[in-house]
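Researcher: Quick sanity check before group meeting.
Model: Go ahead. Protein one:
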Amino acid sequence: MDLWPAIDIRDGRCVRLVQGDFERETRYGDPITVAEMYLQAGAERIHVVDLDAALTGEPVNRGVIAAIVEHFGVPVQVGGGVRNERAAVALVDLGVSRVVLGTAAVEDPALVVRLAERWPGRVVAGLDYRRGPDGDRYVAVRGWTEPSGRRLADVLAGLAAAPLAGVVLTDISRDGTGDGPDLTGLGEVLACSGLPVVASGGVATARDLEALARIEIAGRKLDGAIVGRALLSGQLSIAEAVGACGAGAARPEPGSGRGGQ
């Protein structure tokens, strides 16, 4: 399970929100400095969200994203406000490894399929959800500010045939809270969808990541986990997080080597 340390950008600064609430923001400084801190500590990839673009559709932080991509030379996954082909092309042209489409995955799945076919392995669906009164999971759009009325399971079904690199699932109620990830919901998605799944929201400790790494449904495991506030606050170190992400890895047989891995 890959670790994706998160950098959420608002007004050019690295921030973290609580439950997607733009009024509950903590600032952590310069995004490039944060990226350097992650990578020097042993991270191998970065997950970036342009919160301004997610809210308004305007990519005001694209220069910061370009600087992160150009300066560090590691895989960078970027989302936030990618709602049309022009926005996706601009990010690919910057050199990002994977482009995350959220609102578009709900409102224009044909666009997501088309882009995934154009760039196999480089397009990700980002689905942010809340529990409804009926207990089911419903996807929110436009920076988590609007309900879509669509069930998570139905949106995933509509994307099943797309050659996506994966799907990032964020439990909004847990994001930034440290209350632990939605283990049950993630297991249900692994059971109903064949897409690679990256978990986001609620991780506070190494035990949370170990629990995610050990989820296995019909031989399928999570592809990765996104962690933000716990790393930024120092509650969890990169080394601890990387080690915990490997907790569910099978031990190789003595003398078997690693083959082509």
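Researcher: Fine. The other one?
Model: Protein two, sequence then structure:
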Amino acid sequence: MFPHPFIRRAIQEAQYARDEVGADGTMGYRLAPPLRFIDDYVFFRVSSDPSLTQEQLVNELAGLLCEKPENQGQVKEAINTLEQFWSTRKLEDLERVEKLLRELLPVEHSKNLEYVSNGVTFLTSLIRMVQPGVTPSQKNKLKLELYQTVKPMYIFQGLTADIVWLPEAVRFFNARVDMMLQDYTSPIYVTVPGTEVVGRSVYPKATAQPFTFQWPKDASGKKD
């Protein structure tokens, strides 16, 4: 749901598909909400051209997110810092990204930039809730502040709903936020590699060749 660049991992997977499996181009399609704009764009570009570097991809993304060329440098810094956050998990990285993007919203009219900025704001609020020393009462206060913040955001209308469904909206909002916090702090999730490239030596050798099953024979000697 959140704007996760996955730049280095996407490049690795595209190169793996080409070099090990022999699959060039995009082999599948994913429907995704606008908040997935960054990682979906990276996925499709490196699937069709695995030679692209992180710098080239970020330059393209900045051009798509900005209407004004003079703002592209600030967006590139935000994207690279966002990519860095998923490895460092430092709140200050997220706060830096949020500040960089929010500064541009008054002078840019790109909906994609607004969606990504809203997603970073949501994510930053979540990470504040799981910081060491945050008490349950402080967490509830932060959650209420987050709810009020996202209510006017177009991309989160499914979580805030209209006034007729307000009781249900609040219940689902609470449940979703708690689930995201549990996922983020889960020991299993924390130990799963994020954006860093991974060694594939632990995996079986990939192949695009068909595999013939060796079915066992029955008592008469015939294969089942």
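Researcher: One line on it for the slide.
Model: The chain has ten helices and no strands.
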